[in-house]
Amino acid sequence: MAEIEFDNLEEMQEALTEKSESTENTEDSEKQEPQEQVSDKEKLMRSLVSDDDEVDELTAANIRQMLDAAPRWFLSQWKMMLLCLAGVFLYITNGYQAQVEMMKETELEAELKDWRYRSITRVSELTQLCRQSQLEKKLHEQGDSTLTPSKVAPFIINVKN
After folding, report:
1. Helices assigned H by DSSP within the chain
2. I need a surface site. Which of 14, 27, 39, 153 has the fewest CB within 10 A?
C-alpha cells in the first residue's frame, strides 16, 4: 500500500472520504466480497489517535492491547530503555553516596570542634600554671626561699640612634 503525505488535515479528510466513496462503489458492484473487519487493537489505536471526545478510558487491559499492537517499537527501543534505567540507577547511587559523605563530614566537624575546645582548655591550664605568682607560690611551698620578688622597679633604657 502506497503512503501519501498530506500538508494539512483537510487534504487528509478529503482523501479519506474519496477512498471511502470508492470502496462503497466497489462494494456495490461486487456484493460477493465480505466486509473487512477491524480488530480491537486497531480500534483502540485509532481511538487514541483520533480527536473525538469519545476516547475510551485507559485500563490495564487497553494498555496490554497497545503493547501487543506495537511490540516492534518496544523491541527497537530496548537500548534507550536500558540507558534510562542505568541513568536512574546512577542518579540514586550518587545521591546515597553524597548523603554518606555529608554525614561523615558532619561527624568530622563535630570531632574537630571537640579537639579545639580541648586545646583551648589545655592552653589556659598551662598559662595558669606558668604565671610568675603561681611559680613563686609553689617554690615557697617546697621550701625554696632563695627566689623572692624584686622590690625595685625595672629600669627603662632609652637608646638614641
Report:
1. 9-29, 40-49, 60-69, 71-76, 78-129, 132-142
2. 153
Domain count, the chain: 1
C-beta atoms surrounding 61 within 10 Å: 10
Q: Which domain does 91 fall in, by range?
A: 78-139
pLDDT in tens, 27-46: 555 444 444 566 766 666 66
Q: What is the distance of C-alpha 74 from the center of its chain?
A: 26
Q: Phi and psi for 24 in degrees, rounded to 5?
A: -65, -40
Is 94 inside a domain boundary?
Answer: yes
Q: Is 89 exposed, middle or buried (0-12, 13-18, 19+ CB in 10 A)?
A: exposed
pTM: 0.39
Q: Report yes or no on 110 lying in a domain.
A: yes
